[in-house]
Write a structure and sequence with these properties.
The structure holds two protein chains of two kinds.
Chain A (H helix, E strand, L loop, with lengths): L4 E2 L8 E2 L17 H17 L6 E3 L41 H13 L24 E3 L10 E7 L5 E8 L4 E4 L1 H4 E2 L9 E2 L2 E6 L11 E3 L2 E4 H4 L9 E4 L5 H4 L3 E2 L4 H5 L2 E6 L9 E11 L3 E4 L11 E6 L2 E11 L4 E5 L2 H11 L1
Parallel strand pairs in A: 14-19
Antiparallel strand pairs in A: 1-2, 3-12, 4-16, 5-6, 5-10, 6-7, 7-13, 8-9, 10-11, 12-13, 15-16, 16-17, 17-20, 18-19, 19-20
Chain B lengths: L5 E8 L10 E6 L4 E2 L2 E3 L5 E6 L3 E8 L5 E8 L5 E7 L11
Parallel strand pairs in B: 1-8
Antiparallel strand pairs in B: 1-5, 2-4, 2-6, 6-7
Classes of the chains: A alpha+beta, B mainly beta.
Chain lengths: 352, 98
């Protein structure tokens, strides 16, 4: 099994390859010089990051930065066994789920757009589309196999002892990405609740009572000042660092900073742990991206409380690349924090 | 300028009025987008969730055995908190139209 870094031809920047195992996915995408690709991306990002201090990374008290590197060079085991095939339709091939015709037609446009130069579209400021269809989410039961294994049910204990549920996803052996408000509670109005949460129990691939990879508890958390200081939902993302390399067993998703045009032509896939379904069960849904902002992505994918932190990902040539971190739900649209270049750079740093 | 936070304070009770611990409580309908996180009730069945805009909210509570119930509340930011009780029925969340 190989987990490699690759350049996605359609991305604005480098994306890290999905931890999909050797049986599919990783080997089929275009490989490139890893170091050169990353260097180009990092260099291009510096000026943007410098002018956007909201993305300054912050850690929970007592975070063990050295510990984050443990097992960095460890070769992942065979997470690719039982690999789930992803077709060119942009959605997962899940029994019981079918993308509506209109959405499929939109994805057909992706194939065309992917051959075009990656230019930015003038879509900033467009309003979220006010259509969310019927609830046709499907339950995932093969949660011990990739890609479903990368998604984790989270049980969060806040400072005041209150408990919450959310979702996270692996980007590497010991790093999960989630929403900022999952790791750091801001402006709750409840005494002793705000701040870094006390702990998070991570249960990858959970299927009800079944915990195929066990669980891990962490208080080693990351977010950015735009969230912890300002509570700005455009900076609502964070990370959970584990003390073990549990992700080497589950695999992980790639991620990338994509252009407006690419995002607007993409199907958004989300799998997570909604609170309106039987406890601890994983549910999947997909719809096209409806609009984008400089730091947000909007979509009609059905979600529910408990799915904060889920990966919003697109499928390219059988590989999965997160484009946003799901964070907000509403009657007319749902949205996530867009993976822009500064976000991408923080994810790369947190993955190390 | 964002409105100051307001809390919806409540309890999830079963059909004989006993507290239901570890029930999932989430906002179903709201006047604005809300964080897609869900609360778990404590041993006393109680929960406190935060909202930042006035208006009508619908809350869904789902117990570990999938019994569920919805309740609608009107939030007025002039009051610091809104009290609510959610009484579970035998209906499950995933077959009542959710």
């Amino acid at each position: 099994m190989r987990f490699t870094l690759q350049v996605d031809d359609h991305a604005d920047g480098v994306t890290t390859a999905a931890g999909s195992g050797e049986s599919a996915g990783a080997g089929s995408a275009s490989s490139a010089d890893v170091d050169a690709g990353r260097a180009v991306e990092a260099g291009a990002a510096q000026s943007e990051a410098a002018s956007d201090k909201g993305h300054t990374s912050v850690s929970s008290p007592g975070a063990d930065a050295a510990g984050a590197g443990t097992g960095e060079s460890q070769e992942p085991p065979g997470a690719g066994d039982g690999e789930s095939a992803a077709a060119d339709s942009g959605v997962e091939q899940v029994e019981g789920y079918e993308l509506p015709d209109a959405e499929a037609a939109a994805e057909a446009a992706v194939d065309v757009d992917e051959n075009l130069p990656d230019i930015a579209a003038a879509s900033f400021g467009s309003a979220p589309r006010a259509v969310i269809g019927a609830d046709d989410r499907v339950q995932i039961t093969a949660t011990s196999t990739y890609p479903w294994s990368v998604h984790a049910s989270l049980r969060i204990t806040a400072n005041d002892g209150s408990q919450w549920i959310g979702t996270g996803w692996f980007i590497g052996p010991h790093t999960l990405i989630t929403a900022g408000h999952v790791v750091f509670i801001k402006n709750s109005g409840v005494p002793n609740r705000d701040g870094w949460v006390r702990s998070i129990t991570v249960i990858p691939g959970r299927n009800g009572a079944a915990q195929p990879f066990g669980s891990s508890v962490s208080s080693n958390l990351r977010s950015v000042t735009g969230w912890t200081g300002s509570g700005d939902q455009e900076y609502d993302y964070g990370a959970i660092i584990l003390s073990t390399d549990l992700g080497s067993s589950t695999g992980w998703l790639g991620f990338g900073a994509f252009s407006d045009a690419t995002l607007l032509a993409s199907i958004a896939n989300i799998s997570g742990y909604p609170g309106d379904k039987p406890a601890g069960t994983q549910w999947y849904h997909a719809r096209k991206v409806t609009s984008v902002g400089p730091r947000k992505v909007y979509y009609d994918v059905d979600t529910f409380g408990g799915q904060s932190g889920s990966a919003v990902y697109r499928i390219v040539n059988g590989q999965r690349f997160a484009v946003a971190v799901h964070a907000y739900g509403g009657a007319t649209s749902n949205s996530g924090t867009r993976i822009t270049t500064p976000v991408f750079n923080n994810l790369v740093a947190w993955k190390a | 300028m964002a409105s100051p936070p307001h809390t919806i304070v409540g309890a999830v009770l079963d059909d004989v009025g006993q507290p239901v611990p570890d029930a999932v409580v989430a906002i179903v309908d709201a006047p604005v987008q809300v964080q897609d996180i869900a609360a778990l009730t404590g041993a006393d069945g109680r929960f406190v969730i935060t909202v930042v805009e006035p208006g009508g909210y619908t809350i869904l509570a789902t117990a570990a055995d999938s019994r569920s119930a919805r309740v609608s509340v009107q939030v007025d930011l002039d009051a610091p908190e809104t009290e609510v009780e959610v009484h579970l029925t035998g209906t499950t969340a995933h077959d009542d139209g959710e």
